[in-house]
């Protein structure tokens, strides 16, 4: 008798599924509104912007995955930017937030990092709130900027993560949590709002109506400007004619006086 084929290990199954799901395109999209905020010295102007939130879910008996990505109009991003992944290992009963390279957000300081993490937390809690959270280390390059490090730690602590450092300079550190249910899936809705399809249509309709009204006003102003230019031409001609008449009368008067 031939031996039964050896079953792949759990780690091999996980790696195979991650490779299989790595290049899958998103299946759902949603509009985001980034509220205008005051200009900051470190980040510059922060005007009103709109962005696209793309979503992909995959499930198997072994692993579940959520991938969220944000795209901005007329702005090219690197593949690893604005991407959050959440992995649920159903055998080990763990939750892991990714990607491994860390969460890289553009534009910075607009509330997007906390929004993405909150979305991932809510998704994990709805499915497996009792799963254990696997922590991760901070990238060393993200710890040298004190302002950026403080902002990052504030976001993670607001979401329920625990921050720990192994050195006094707070260069080497990481974050973690006990269970997914201990985390807080909340974000600053004054900075980031999800826009429903009907609301997006309403925004476009209002924008189109505003453009039409502005076009009517502009055409009216152009007509007024044309009339003013026409009147100005007539006045210039009248003034020139009067000046010529005055010169003629002056010359005639002088001629009569000295004749």
Please, could you describe this protein's structure?
The protein is an alpha+beta fold. The protein folds into 2 domains: 10-195, no CATH class; 196-259. Helix content is 40%, strand content 24%. The protein contains 4 helices and 12 strands, in the order αβββββββαββαβββα. It has helices spanning 10-21, 112-128, 146-158, 197-257, and strands spanning 28-34, 37-40, 44-46, 49-59, 63-71, 83-89, 94-98, 132-134, 136-137, 162-165, 173-176, 192-195. The strands form 3 sheets. It has a 7-stranded mixed sheet with strand order 8-7-6-5-4-1-12, sandwiched between helices. A hairpin with a 4-residue loop joins strand 6 and strand 7. It is elongated. The protein starts with 9 loop residues before the first helix and ends with a helix. The model has no long low-confidence stretch (mean pLDDT 88).
